[in-house]
Design brief:
39% of the residues lie in helices and 18% in strands. α2 runs antiparallel to α3, α5 runs parallel beside α6 and α6 runs parallel beside α7. With 374 residues, it is of the alpha/beta class. It has 2 domains: 95 residues, no CATH class; 260 residues, Alpha-Beta Barrel (TIM Barrel). It is built from 12 helices and 14 strands. The protein has an 8-stranded parallel β-barrel with strand order 7-8-9-10-11-12-13-14, surrounded by 6 helices. Strands 1-6-5-2 form a 4-stranded mixed beta sheet. Strands 3-4 form a two-stranded antiparallel sheet.
Amino acid sequence: MPESSLVSVPLDALTPPVSPAWLRPVGLFGGPVARQAVETGKALPLAGGPAAFAAVEILVRREGQIETAFASLDALRRWALVAGRAVQADIERRLDALSRPRPPWAGLALDRPLVMGILNVTPDSFSDGGAFLDPADAVAHGRAMLAAGADIIDIGGESTRPHAAPIGPEEEIARVEPVLRALAALGATLSIDTRHASVMAMALASGVRIVNDVTALTGDPASPGIVARAGAAVVLMHMQGEPQTMQDDPRYALASLDVADYLSARVASVGAAGIAADRIVVDPGIGFGKARRHNVEILARIALFHGIGTGVLVGLSRKSLVGGISGAPVGDRVPGSLAGALHGLSQGVQIVRVHDVAATRQAIALARAIADAG
């Protein structure tokens, strides 16, 4: 896909779109000021949470380029009124998706930040490959993350790092089954990180509540049906290409917009297969088929993804994006990982997927205390 130019225009010069426009909340604010602004109708709550917004960036696709304009909510509605009923209805639909409260997901409320702890039962994951391949070590680490404040433990038996070699579902099951059964017996909320339908079926039958699929349920034709019949929650992630080749010159018109379009289409597709939107969280897939410039632009516009109408998850813990920007090796990327997680949460992201649960919980606690005081 060729990279297109992003053109900034004044709102009055923005031609009404032929296809639906996307809206990104900007100028987010919280605390008592946000509550008062929402109560008086001067702002909208972001995904029903504590942050509010009174202005947006409008993104419209044109032939060979993407136009962007900024507007207050009042100005946006005046522009939509002039643009016609179809545009007006689409803008109101987008604003509703951005602002309405998210229902509980996998039995967990989305009105507070959730921490998903990463548990790789693999020999070759980029950060902790081999550290928890022994089931006893993996269970002990899962227990430690729960004690540190993890809301969810995400268990994976196949590495999907760049250039990773795929493995069969039988080997994946052998790695993860004893671990997830032991942690499920503790009553933990578990997620299975897999793209194989048979692994999903085994995990869901063993007490796992969430399927976290890097292929957004496209990697195995049986996957949507298995998740639908189980009534499970699901994370739909975006990945351009396959792990072995995804970092070979990935291209986007505008990464955030392309990924949002893809995930919106996947939500509709799995909805037709019987998976309701309130069971879905979307993940833009930082580092999966994206160059540094794509990852940074997606994070800068992460609030755009609330327009899909689901919860949003971000995972950049210890990834090469952090190392490439900071120069830090994998083992020294906690500060950058925390910065990325806190940025996402400041933009209304409901779930962060992390290796370092205790550090993340501490950072969240301080950030929330400051926000609530203002």
